[in-house]
Amino acid sequence: MSTPIPQEIKRKLKKKRLIFTITTGRSGTGYLAKMLGLLGVNIASHHEPEPKFSHVMRFVQTNPKIAYDFWVNKKLPFIAAQEKPVYIETSHLFCKGFVEPLLNLGIIPDIIILSRSCREVAKSLYELNAIPGRTQEGLKFLLSPDDPGVVPLPGWENYTNYQLCYWYCLEIKRRMEIYKKILQSINFYFGFFSWFGIKSDSLCLSSYSYHY
To answer: Which helix (H) or strand (E) is 43 found in, with range?
Structure first.
């Protein structure tokens, strides 16, 4: 683990509510950020702000310490500097190596699980040429079949681009269930909500508190 969160940053974070998403991407995250930002003047709602998870996501897969350093030195200071008490970020990269480091640092955020059908997401990724393990966009923003900790896919090099996109969606669905169970074990409440206007199957929000 990296160095602890500086006391001044920790003090500011205790006064804030942090909300992140677990999702595949191509699931309405940009629209969600805009909509949540309209809910009140005390909400700072972002889609993929700097410092971006994507800058280090690929390296985090094989070196989790980079995620700790990113939180402590980049992302948490940025969040702490926000004037509004509620910070929302809908980036789909949060679930790709950044959840456990944040929890281990003692910060338990609220989580939105945003789901869209695997077929629709895979089709969208395929059309954008964001192919897991193959293209530049796929490597930068998506998990790859040869990353540690993912569902094994023997012989993935022989799969079609669309099949790899669909595999990626299944991997994120698996992580949704994993993180749902982890967060349910931390707190007694987990709620499910429908979200009007988003091309998604479900939206669930869980409420937790910070622990330092």
So the answer is: strand 43-46
Locate 19 and state its tokens.
């909300």
What is the distance between the alpha carbons of residues 37 and 72, in angstroms, rounded to a whole number?
Answer: 25
| Strand-pair partners of 193 | 203
Cβ neighbors of 75 (< 8 A, separation 6 or more) are 51, 53
- pLDDT exceeds cutoff 50 at 188: no
Q: Which residue has the tokens 């006064």?
A: 15
- Phi first, then psi: what are they for 32, rounded to 5°? -60, -45
176 within 8 A of 96, measured Cβ to Cβ: no
Sheet holding 191-193, edge to edge: 43-46, 86-89, 17-22, 110-115, 202-206, 191-193
Helix H or strand E encompassing 206? strand 202-206
Residues paired with 46 in a beta bridge? 89
pLDDT tens digits, one per residue of 161-171 = 999 999 999 99
3-state helix, strand, coil in the chain (%, to 5): 40, 15, 45
- Pull the structure tokens for residue 148: 């540690």
- CA distance linking residue 71 with residue 69, whole number of Å: 5
pLDDT exceeds cutoff 60 at 45: yes
Q: β-strands 43-46, 110-115: how paired?
A: unpaired
Q: What is the pLDDT of residues 111-152, one digit of tens each?
A: 999 999 999 999 999 999 999 999 999 999 999 999 999 999
